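This entry is listed as follows:

___
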Amino acid sequence: TNRVSCLNMGFLTEGDTLRWEEAKKYADYIRKHGIEQFLSIWRNTKHRTNDALLWGDEVEYLLVRFDQDTHRIKLSLHGHEVIAELAKDENEQSPALWRPEYGRHMIEGTPGHPYGKSLWKDFREIEPNMRLRRDLISAAIDSRDRVVTLTNYPLMGVGDFTEPSTKPGGDVANSLFTSDDLIHPHHRFATLTRNIRLRKGSHVAINMPIFMDKNTKVPTYEKERAEGRNAQDGHIYMDSMAFGMGMCCLQTTFQACNIYEARHFYDQLAVMSPIMLAITAGSPILRGLLADTDVRWNIIAGSVDDRTPQELGKEPLKDQRFVIPKSRYDSISTYLSRDFTFRPEYNDYDLVIDPEVYKRLRDEGIDHLLAQHIAHLWIRDPLVIYSGKIEIDDEKYADHFENLQSTNWQTVRFKPPPPGSTIGWRVEFRPMEACITDFENAAFVAFTVLMTRVIASYDLNLYIPISKVDENMKRAHKRDAVNSEKFFFRKKITSADTPNTIKECVKYRGTDGDFADAFHPPTNPVEEEYEEMTINEIMNGKADGTFPGLIPLMTNYIDAVEMDVETRVLLQKYLQLIAQRASGKLMTTAAWIRKFVREHPTYKFDSVITEDIAYDLVEAAHKIATGAMDAPELLGGLNK
């Protein structure tokens, strides 16, 4: 069946997994055959075209146990049981699909079928389907549990924070704060956790700056450092994968009409990633403390960073292959599209690639940009190897390709068709944080879908150098970045004033060879093409009319296409929400959480989230999501 259902954590399979000492013996084999599997897919599907624009969303949910008598909350570790219950009768008609996520407290839900078969009407399905998913979970859980869509549980790693009760530690993560019992029982997740730690040769270390309030005590970690842990004073120190992969997000996956369009969407959406991360910011509380950052990205990056001291450049390379500048979970490092608007100068990142993999791909006729993209992913080791699935048919299966592909977690992911499937070339958009309500989550999904339509219809060109996208990612982490930061963005993004609404499936740059000489790229310095803008300017346009703004472009697009009135009215509401978040009229989730904490009667202005504050905060989030409480600063009444 043609379902756009994507696993954030990658593919799951059955069988025994190998510990790192055993797994590393097979690393070269898995890499070599992973490339052969990719080549098989490429040969079979490179000319495939005219696939429908199908798309789907993925929402991750948290389960929380409320004890009203004691006014205490715990993270409810029953998500895996709930998933088993919800998924047991899954079939072709199921309105939702359920998949495991990293933590036992998490549930991942997607629509039962991809959207896009009736382009406009499907926009009206997003929010009701999200509401249905929330209702289905609510009906399947313990009466004391609640389902919320917060990016992060505020008391993760603080005291006795789970139900059932757990003790920190265990031989998988060996954490000072979280128990291995938090990890979903499917052995992929524990193997990933243990093998990252063993490969790295030390605990993962996440250090995020603490928010210094009037009475905040600077955290110090002499004892932890004496135990060999890389904890930094003045920071919120976290030491396990649960702190990162135990967070929730909102993702969308698009099927493009062919490989060329998928590569084009990949590049343009990569530029949008930091902007969408900042505007959906929702994680200002880490390990029970207010952080000086608002988003999750660097926390997850640190939680799965398996680089050794040699790969980090701290020791000379001896038995490792490369010095690697980024974590496995990071922003993209190279553009992919061969569209005529692409200039080689945009790929200004010093890309580390596996030269043998690059040569193998080039020898098979794969162009430079796609070959270096794959060869860059292949600098990593496979982390989860199943003992019974090492020798497989490279023409029929893609397990070894997916092994590396699915453990390179980047802001966007370029996804080839699965072997023998009717699914086409896809792009997964991964930066957005989970929002409190289905209305907000639906608005951001609709926005990203409209973004792909506007990219295609207006021939949108958002290119800026990769180094500037990386800088934007850094700025997106800042507290209240949506209002306080400026972001690098292209000055002239469209050449067309009216959208080409009946755009056929084009090959963009056309051939399977390298760049055609017929295209004469501009000779002006790249630096002249972009400038720093506020998110308000990027989204809503500049007051002097020199930059149109993405939302006005979307409004023009909606006006130009033949869309029914009901869908048009709904999309205008969604765009209004995002426009008002961008302008600062409405708060981000992170800003709302900070305000809630700092105005709580028991808050001592010491950056500490007490159990009372956490209870009231999560209860408020649940009430807002179910419509039992208004949040005008968040929603502006637009959800009515």
